[in-house]
Amino acid sequence: MRSSESFFFKCSAIWFLLLVFWGFAPSFYLADYFDPDYHLPQHLVLHGVVFSLWVLLYAIQVFLVGYKKYATHRFLGGIGLVIMILMVPTGIFPSIYKVYEGTMTIDGAGHNVFRLFSGYGLFTLAFVFRSKGFLHKRFMLGCMVMLTSAAIFRISFDVNMQDNQLFNKGFQILPALLLFLLDWANRKKVVLIDLISPVLVLGIFFLADYFWLSSVGELAMDLLISIFVKTIV
């Protein structure tokens, strides 16, 4: 059981690294190759650096646990907390700045805001339960599922599946579903915590518009813009 679970999480680390690199290679990692004349705005460069550090740290942490380097894992966990704190403003700002500019609708940005805050929330749970390995790992995987949706959205254009929500959402929740099946096979019971991120992904997809298209949603977006945009711009 332990060996199969360890192998799964190592595969998840590689999966997320490849996913993010593929999704953001044209616009960030290999931007000079794809379009030498295009220069990313500074806030997107900062966003890309911080989120890249997070994905890389997730992969490193998974392999450290796999090789029983627990002291180093705990040390890097503190660094991970700092990176996650930085991910809040560097993640929310790009998501809502276009609303502030008038180039994106509230509901369009709102979906991403919900996904980001869901990821931040799952990380918070992972940090709270960091001494309980079973819960910690699953909350961290859920966090990664929520925070890599933008990469999948970009990949969908590469394979001409941008309008296929079954592809987009299915691709996003695939790691969580595979963990659910692995736990079911190994433990002979349903582990509901594995399904937190799939429920969040589908819940946001089907229900977010009801919030963001309401007067309360408009007020919430105005508040976010006041906190994360107007204090900087």
Brief overview:
The protein has 233 residues and is an all-alpha fold. It has helices spanning 2-29, 31-34, 42-66, 70-101, 106-128, 133-147, 149-158, 165-187, 196-212, 215-228. This is DUF2306 domain-containing protein.
Write a concise keyword list for the protein shown above:
mainly alpha; 233 residues; membrane
Question: Can you offer a commentary on this structure?
Answer:
- It is a single chain.
- This protein has 233 residues and is mainly alpha-helical.
- It has one domain.
- The chain is built from 10 helices and no strands.
- The chain has helices at residues 2-29, 31-34, 42-66, 70-101, 106-128, 133-147, 149-158, 165-187, 196-212, 215-228.
- The protein starts with a helix and ends in a 5-residue tail after the last helix.
- The mean pLDDT is 96.
Tally of discrete structural domains: 1
- Helix percentage: over 70%
Structural class: mainly alpha
Number of helices: 10
Average the pLDDT over all residues and give the rounded result. Answer: 96
What does the radius of gyration come to?
A: 18 Å
- Low-confidence stretches are none
Order of helices and strands: HHHHHHHHHH
Q: Determine the strand fraction and express it as a percent band.
A: under 5%
What's the total count of β strands? 0
Organism: Ulvibacterium marinum
Protein name: DUF2306 domain-containing protein
Keywords: Membrane, Transmembrane, Transmembrane helix
Transmembrane segments: 7-25, 45-67, 79-97, 109-127, 192-213
Give the topology.
Layout: H1 2-29, H2 31-34, H3 42-66, H4 70-101, H5 106-128, H6 133-147, H7 149-158, H8 165-187, H9 196-212, H10 215-228
